[in-house]
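Input structure tokens:
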């Protein structure tokens, strides 16, 4: 089938992706340069350029990677690789704390969800973090709600529901935040109970309800049986101490801080 260039291009592309997954970047680069050069006019040509950008990222040449991604956006605006290019470029800007530029990249993906395919949830998650980093909490909240509605069975769905509560709190909607966290305690299971109890306490603390905050913070070390990935006990003792200070109960505050030290 030597005359069927589209298939020859695909064979080369698949060979390159195998080298890439094996982290054999030298061999992968050789193959993708061929795909991007000899087969540039096929569907796989832009993908060859894309993987050359990914290789540059992988070998710690971010400037080369960024230039490659920018050139793909200009040369191949109709290619099906564009959403992945935008995602990679957005992630690079996010990691460099250029959040406004990252948001622009992710926004382009969200504006054409039908062409984003399986990367759409990643783009939505990343733009939520970008919005939060730039204190655009309303936009983050809206996108998080959209994510939950669009991907109700996603593995990160509980984290997104917790994010709703955190964003309520950051917007000053403390009662809604508390209700959100309380409703999640049974749904999330024991592994997240400590985090949720802590978040409830923090919402009360930010609201100025320090006595209620203390009660919630102290549920973490004394009532929660399982901590999950993060141990929230020390942080809860500390915040209970902070709340006692707000109440001018300094001996109780000292007791909380001593618990952390012990």
């Amino acid at each position: 089938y030597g005359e069927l260039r589209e298939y020859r291009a695909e064979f080369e592309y698949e060979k390159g992706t195998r080298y890439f997954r094996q982290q054999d970047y030298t061999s992968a680069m050789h193959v993708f340069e061929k795909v991007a050069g000899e087969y540039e006019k096929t569907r796989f040509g832009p993908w060859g350029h894309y993987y050359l950008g990914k290789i540059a990222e992988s070998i710690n040449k971010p400037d080369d990677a960024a230039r490659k991604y920018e050139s793909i956006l200009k040369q191949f605006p109709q290619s099906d690789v564009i959403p992945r290019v935008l995602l990679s470029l957005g992630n690079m800007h996010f990691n460099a704390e250029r959040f406004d530029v990252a948001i622009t990249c992710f926004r382009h993906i969200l504006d054409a969800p039908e062409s984003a395919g399986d990367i759409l949830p990643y783009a939505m998650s990343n733009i939520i973090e970008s919005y939060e980093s730039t204190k655009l909490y309303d936009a983050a909240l809206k996108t998080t709600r959209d994510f939950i509605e669009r991907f109700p069975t996603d593995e990160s769905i509980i984290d997104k529901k917790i994010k709703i509560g955190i964003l309520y709190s950051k917007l000053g909607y403390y009662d809604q935040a508390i209700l959100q966290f309380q409703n999640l305690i049974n749904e999330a299971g024991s592994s997240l109970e400590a985090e949720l109890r802590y978040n409830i306490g923090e919402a009360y603390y930010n609201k100025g309800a320090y006595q209620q905050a203390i009660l919630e913070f102290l549920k973490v070390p004394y009532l929660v049986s399982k901590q999950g990935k993060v141990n929230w006990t020390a942080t809860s003792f500390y915040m209970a101490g902070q709340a006692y200070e707000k109440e001018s109960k300094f001996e109780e505050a000292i007791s909380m801080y001593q618990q952390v030290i012990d």
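Residues 201 and 216 are 5 Å apart (CA to CA). The chain has a mean pLDDT of 94.
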